[in-house]
Amino acid sequence: MTRYFIKRLLGGLFTIWITTIAVTLLIHLVPGDPVQIMYAQSQSTTPEQIEQIRRNLGLDRPIYEQYIMYMGRVLQGDFGTTIRGNQPVLDLLLVRLPNTLLLAVTSLIITMVVGVTAGFFAAYKRGTWIDTTLMTGAIVGISVPSFWLGLMLISIFSVRLGWFPVSGTNLNNLVLPALTLGLANAASVSRLTRSSMLDVLSQDYMRTARAKGLAETLVLSRHAFRNGMINVVNMLGLQFTYMMGGAIVVENVFAWNGIGRLAIQSIFQRDYPTIQGFILIFATVVVIVSIVLDLLYAWIDPRITYN
Amino acid sequence: MFWQFKLTKRTAQRQRRSLLGVALTAILVSACGNNQQTTTTTSPSPGTTATEGGTLIWARYGDADSLDPHRTTTTLSWQIFDQIYDTLLAFNDSGEIVPNLAREWQVSDDGTEVTFVLNEGMTCHDGTPFDANDVKYTADRAIDSQNPSVTRGAWGPIEAVDVVDPQTVRFRFQSPFAAFVSFMADPFASMICDSNQELGDQFGVSQAVGTGPWQLVSWTRGDEIVLDKNPDYVRYGRPVQNEGAAYLDRLVVRQIPEAQTRLAGLQTGEVQLIVNPPLDDLDAIRGNSNLELHVAENTGQNFFFEFTVSRPPFNDIRARQAVAYAIDIDAALRVAFDEGLVERERCPISRGVFGNDQEFCGQYSYEHNPDRARQLLAEMGYSANRPMEVILMTSTGDNRERMVQVFQSQLAQVGINAKIETMDIGTLNARVKQENERTSGISTFDMMDWAWFDPDILYQLWHSPGAYSGYQSPELDKLLERTRTTVDATQRREAVNDVMEYLLSNAVHIPLYTPGSLWVYATRSQVQGFKIGPFNRPVFNDVRLQ
Q1: What's the complex ipTM?
Q2: Is A39 in Cβ contact with B62 (below 8 Å)?
Q3: Domain span holding position A237
Q4: pLDDT for B194-215, tens place per residue?
Q5: How far is A209 from chain B (nearest CA, A)?
Q6: Chain A contact for B119, CB < 8 A?
Q7: What distance in Å separates the CA atoms of residue B521 and residue B358, rounded to the nearest whole number?
Q8: Is A155 left (phi over 0), alpha (psi -120 to 50) or beta?
């Protein structure tokens, strides 16, 4: 178990390292230079001055040199400052990270509660109108873009009914973005739960459990649900990554002050230190979550052991 | 200077629709941009009068990059500088330069010295006095090559800044710099207090000390900037009526990136002012008696065509002129924008900027003339079987995609096949420069926009090597240099005219329209006294909430 954990940890670090290299290469592939963009439109600075600022920022060096210098600083905990406005990058990210995590976790809870419940009942009532209705809903849920769903929710619950604020980063405003993100993902979870449950419900041990006279609720909760959930929990890690990614769109719609929104803005401004910092933090969170979930997986299903 | 500034204020039509049932389709239609309006109201009962105090929330699509005026030049940033700091001079409503922190100024005959005499008894937000030392501190910091200042070029060839006495400060230049005096009225030249030096890295991040009408309380980056009124504010030159401190207690500048969400926030009354509402939903604002639309004019913004001249066909003046004759700008504007939002612009520098003269530019501008365009193309050997193939690029947003689509169809009518490429402004800037440095491939032209408060913009764009390494000529350089070194207003106007004539008759810079970028605002009707000064500067000194 410990060996497995260490192996996973090293694998995780390797993943993060590869990600930083890929991102550094990719952002330099996009045309446009941060200093030039900063000066574009409504600015008067000579090309020599722009060149000097690029030199000050180290942007005139080869990419690999910039990368090594950057990683050297990061290992000492220095994420640098934004090119635009000279703000400390780590501060910018850490102030926002809890907001994104809060949104992602709340959405994940909504996804699990709604998705698993719907999938479970659809499987249990297989072939009935309940099954059909729930699965039709799931198809709609998968097809609706979260951008549109978000605006719909604002239109109904904020503008018409006045129940929730339109924007802002506080608990009051958490409901609508979390619903937007949660419902879209609940749709796919419900389909997975349904097929997994159908599998389990047709197993011999289900018939045995019923044959020995176990109450239906016990049959379902002890034998069907727990076994059916293994696949779903396995998918949790993937779901969480979706949540973090999907948060970028939802954060924009609801003006939720998370790191995704910062990332988009930085990409448009080619603010390399911010983009790199974002990816580093993002990759770290995803790696940690997936390790934790793997350990959780073994705990739920004792048949699984790591060695 | 003779331009006129007026603020178009469209009082919303009073019109309400009762909503019978909330069918899903109806909601769908409304949120997708139709004019279905909501009747949620938080407005006060009629007859209430404006009072002092209170908080106004201003929602914008993005955040400031920094509160340090030497660190960034984005509109989102300088519109905040404009609240926290003040400038030595100011633009009045008719765009003339008037005294502000400086009660008088004098330019030496040879144009190499500018002396300012400051008002007495001015204080910074932290209570320290504001005097000539603060001016010197600001200028030295802005032009210090050790400091990564982004406004250095705009200050001109400063040799030294001398404090003559606490109320008098003198700028000495290596050579005359005509754009300096107007720069002193621009937020990029915001005066910062020398006590900021003690703040170190925190200046512009968590703290900012100025003399402006609003003082910084807190800045939650990406979320909101909270400003309180400066109770000691004295108006010297700002284009407002209120002579003292602002009427409001607090001004909160909030970030709401999505336009539909901003509009929803205005509709619910969660925010009282938004910039850049969705342009397709302006009827929802006009049709709502609780909301008012404000359109800024004389912003100094100029949308124009420029061409890649490093290769055929646009290295030939006839190809550039053919494009200029082929397009029908007025028709395109009617398709792309609601009436009254933008105006056709005939000069390379826009309305509101010194030297803009529609009549003068009209003599050299290109009116819609498809026959002339076809004739020029025929001379170059193009025909119906052999159309001219080019790429038309522009940046995304503010209905620019729609503009270029109309242009595309107009160009097709004379035999120019233009492929459209739209991209974010950062990419476009890089791309235009790249295209100018390439000597092969399909040629490009682009719809670009720049904003500046002085005709010096033309120098920045077109003096070799130019902003994008585009069209260059020694003759044009000479004309441009004269606009920089000529200090006398009448002579400078002539110099600017010469440049505009050159750019137009050589079809280098084809002006299209103004303003066109982040110039539409909407308020709750309860907001009284909101004003957008020249060059797109929202001012809140006169604002009261009803």
Answers
A1: 0.81
A2: no
A3: 90-300
A4: 999 999 888 998 899 999 999 9
A5: 46
A6: no
A7: 26
A8: alpha
